[in-house]
Sequence to fold (298 residues):
Amino acid sequence: MENTKTVSIKKQNKSAASSLMKKNIRKFMRNKLAVLGLVIVVAMTVASIMSMVLKLDYSMPDLRNMKVEPGTNGHILGTDTIGRDLFARVLFGGCYSIFIGVFSSIMSGIIGAVLGAVAGYFGGRADKFLVRVSELFQTFPQLVLVMMLVAISGTRGMANIIMIFTFTGWMTTFRMVRNEFMSIKSETYVKVCEAFGMGRINIMFKQILPNVMTPIIVSTTTNVAVYILQEATLSFIGLGISDQTPTWGNILNAAKSVSVVTNQWWIWVFPGLAITLFVLAINFLGDGIRDVMDAKQQ
Fold:
């Protein structure tokens, strides 16, 4: 009899989970901006990955077709100042820029979530120490702090940029998660878990953390856009990844020349448009996921 009841309960739980997932999907699909953001993000990501799989030539200059306009001699988006195909460079640049933004955001989100959970749940000295550390980091504007660390390290590599972004970008997630933990840890179900002797780690990461996913998603998606913009800024001023790597920021670097800005508009318009579209799309997507996963609206 008990086995029959257990099987019945499991079926009911699976049915409820399936119903909730369908409801969330329908809710997401009703958000037109979120759907548009998802389509743009997927399309741009797939196109960038395919350019790497197909090994498009982004570095070989075509000396006969330097600074040609879009659609000239097979160059869809034209060529840059030394004759390199701009279409291949924008697609390849998406691989690097998107990877930097997504990976840095995930790593900083993990660090911020763990530290926020520790500070919010335990409180006391641990909370005071971590809050003071986050305040110390936030004393400087993040971009200024990133520029200082890049200049101090003296290395223009992708790993160095990712490490600096991760090191300087966890504070927003930390504060949001900490605030949620401080309000949730006094809930009845948390007290029941503590009364039954459940370990603190299990309570923090298995009971409370699933109810704090909304601020984590919001900050993570926001940071993806922020890191892509910061990488573009650093590369534009010559502090980002080395010039041989065609990130969107490095492609825009050519627009520092007045003659390029005025006479070769396509060299800076297309990479700038790629950055703008992807940043807007990731923000639309993040807002849609936030609305769907908000536990308070379930």
